[in-house]
Amino acid sequence: xxxxxxxxxxDGVLAIIITIMVLELKVxxxxxxxxxxxxxxxxxxxxxxFTFVGIYWNNHHHMLHAIQHVSGSVLLANLGxxxxxxxxxxxxxxMGENHFAPVPVAFYGLLQLMAATFYWVLQQRCIATQGxxxxxxxxxxxxxxxxxxxxxxxxxxxxxxxxxxxxxxVYGGISVMWLIPDRRIERALxxxxxx
Amino acid sequence: xxxxxxxxxxDGVLAIIITIMVLELKVxxxxxxxxxxxxxxxxxxxxxxFTFVGIYWNNHHHMLHAIQHVSGSVLLANLGxxxxxxxxxxxxxxMGENHFAPVPVAFYGLLQLMAATFYWVLQQRCIATQGxxxxxxxxxxxxxxxxxxxxxxxxxxxxxxxxxxxxxxVYGGISVMWLIPDRRIERALxxxxxx
Amino acid sequence: xxxxxxxxxxDGVLAIIITIMVLELKVxxxxxxxxxxxxxxxxxxxxxxFTFVGIYWNNHHHMLHAIQHVSGSVLLANLGxxxxxxxxxxxxxxMGENHFAPVPVAFYGLLQLMAATFYWVLQQRCIATQGxxxxxxxxxxxxxxxxxxxxxxxxxxxxxxxxxxxxxxVYGGISVMWLIPDRRIERALxxxxxx
Amino acid sequence: xxxxxxxxxxDGVLAIIITIMVLELKVxxxxxxxxxxxxxxxxxxxxxxFTFVGIYWNNHHHMLHAIQHVSGSVLLANLGxxxxxxxxxxxxxxMGENHFAPVPVAFYGLLQLMAATFYWVLQQRCIATQGxxxxxxxxxxxxxxxxxxxxxxxxxxxxxxxxxxxxxxVYGGISVMWLIPDRRIERALxxxxxx
Lengths: 195, 195, 195, 195
Prior knowledge:
The structure is a homotetramer of 195-residue chains. Chain A contains 10 helices and no strands. With 195 residues, the first copy, chain A, is mostly helical. Chain A has one domain. The radius of gyration of chain A is 18 Å and the shape is elongated. The first copy, chain A, starts with a helix and ends with a helix. The model of chain A has no long low-confidence stretch (mean pLDDT 90). Chains A and B meet through α1, α4, α5 and α6 of A and α1 and α3 of B. Chains A, B, C, D: Its main location: membrane. Chains A, B, C, D: Keywords: Ion channel, Ion transport, Membrane, Potassium, Potassium channel, Potassium transport, Transmembrane, Transmembrane helix, Transport. Chains A, B, C, D: The chain crosses the membrane at residues 9-27, 39-58, 70-91, 103-122, 150-180. Chains A, B, C, D: It is a multi-pass membrane protein. Chains A, B, C, D: Belongs to the TMEM175 family.
C-alpha cells in the first residue's frame, strides 16, 4: 500500500490545523496599538501551538520518509494522532482567552500529552512494518527526545496548578528542544545508503 | 485520465471537512473544568464524525488504489459523495448543540445514509471502469459491510424517534465495524500480483 | 516549468472554497424540523455553488491534463480565476440569506461571469503554450459551451431585475449543461495518442 | 531529503491562508447594492493580500523548483515564513475594518516586512544547499526586487503615520512589481540545461 495519500491527507489536515488557529485571533474593534495589546495571550498561545504543529509536521515527514509502506494499523494510529492534534486549536483558544489560567494550561498540556502518546504509537506501528533491523528504529535510537517530551508534558500538567508560568516554560522548552535540527534520521538514512 | 488529481482534490475536501468540524467546539468563556463539561455532546458528536470521515478517507484511499483510471461518471459520483460529506459538519453541530434531540439525531443518520449511498454508487462506477473480472469487485466480494451500513443507518433513523441512545449506539457500532482493519482489498491486490 | 504545483495549489484553493461555503449554513438553535426549514434558500445556494465549483475543478483538471507545461501568464490567469472563485462563498451567503432578492442574485451572476471570463482567459493562455495545432484547441473546438455560459450569465444578471426565478433557472441550466459528461478533451487526447 | 512534502505542506498552508481571508468579508444583512458598498475597504484589503499571497506562492514555487534537496534549516526557515504569512488574514481584517487607519496600515506593512525578511532567509538557506555556483544564486542575481521590497515595506510603515494613502500606494506598487512576470529563474534554469 502506498504512503503517498497518507502523507497528502496528513499534510492537508496539519496545514488546516495550523492555519485555522489564527481565526482565534479576533480582529479588535479599535484601531490603536492599545487595542492590539490585550491580544498578547492569544498570540503567545498561537505561537506555541504553531511551533508544535510545525514540529509534528516536520517529524511526521521524516518518519514516513524512513519507511517503505504503510499498514492498516499505521493508518489507524495516524488518524488517532490527527484527532488529538485537531483539538489543539480549541485548547489554544481556551488557554489564550483565559490569560493562561491553571485549568486551561493543564488541559493544553494534557492534549499535548495525548498527541505525543499517539505519535509514539504511530512510530511503533511504523517500526513494526519494517520488522527486525528496522531502519526507523536505528534512526531514532532510544528516542530520548520522545520519552523526555512525554514525561515533561505530564510534569507540566501538574505544574499548571502550582504556577502556570512554570508549565508554560516547560511547554516552551519542549518546543525549543525539537526545533533544534535533529539529524538522527537523515544520518541513519545516509548510513543505510552508503553502508 | 489520471486519478492523481481526483485523489488530491478528495484528500483536500476530506481534510477540510474533518478539521472545520472542530470549529463547532466553541471556546467556553469560563476557565474552570466545569465550563468544559457542557461541551460533552458537541465533543462526542465530533468524535463520531471525525471517525466516520476518517473511515471514508481510508476506504476511498483503498478503492482508488484498486482501480487504474477514472471516468467522467466516477468524477461525478465522487463529487456527489463529497457533497453529502460536506454537510456532516452542519449535522454534527446541530446534533451536538441540541444534546442529541430526536430530530437532529435522525437528520444525522439520514445524511450518513445519503453519503453511504453515494459511496456505493461511486464504488459501482469504479467497478464499471474495470469491466468484467473487476479486481475491485473481487476485493469487496458481496460487500456485506456496505450493505449492513446502509440498512443500519436506515434503521437508526427510525430508532431516533423511539430512543436516541439506540440510534447513537447503532452509529457507534457502524463506525467500530469499519475501524477494525479490513484486509479484503489489500489481500485481493496481493493475490492479483502474485497469481 | 512543471504543472504539478499549479494543480496542487489550485486543488487546495478549490477544495477550501467548496468546503468553507458550508460554514454559511449556520446551525439553527431549535431542534425541530421546522427550525431547519428556513435554511432552504441558504442550502439551495450552497447546492448551486458546490456544483459550479465542482464543475470548475473538473474542467480545470481536464484542461491542465491536455497541456504539457505552464508559462508565467498561465500562473497569473489561474490566480485571477481563483480570485473570482474565492468570492463565490460570499456571494452564495448573501444570496441565500436574502432569500434570492434581485440585487444579490444579479451580483452572484456577475461574479460567475467574471470567473467564466477568467477561465476563458486561462484557457487561451494554456492554448498559447502549445502553439499552432494546439491539442487543447482541437479538444475544445469552437468552445460553444464556454461561449453560451458567458452569454447566459450576462442575460441572467439582467433577468434578476425582472424575475429572480428566471435568473436562477438560467444558473441551474448552465450547471446542468456542464454536469452532463463532456468527452471532447478525452476524445481528442485519445485521438492524439492513436493517430 | 525530498522536497515534495515541503511543497505540499506549503501549498496547503498558502491555499488556506489565501482562502480564509475571504471569511472577513462578512455577508451584509441588507439586500441592496448600498449594503455592499461599506465593504469596499475590506474588499480592497482582501485584493491586496490575495495578490501578495499569490505572489509568494508563485515565487516559492519557482525557488523550490531551482533547488534539488532541502535541509533542516530550509524546513525551519520555511516554517518561519509560513508563520508570518499566517498572520496576514488577521492584519488584512484589522486594516479593512478600520478603513485604513494609520496604526493598522503600519502593522500590515510590518507583517509584510517580517514575511519578506523570512522569505529572504529561506532563499539564503536554499542557496546554501547548492554550495558555490548555486543555480538559484545565479537565477536571482543581485536580487534587486527582494531588496527593493524590504526597503519599500520599511518606508511604507513610516509613511503610514504621515498619510496612509502613500503607504497603500507603496504596497500596491510592490505587488505590481512582482506581478509582472519575471523570467530570471526560468531563463537561468534553461541556460543551465542547454549550456
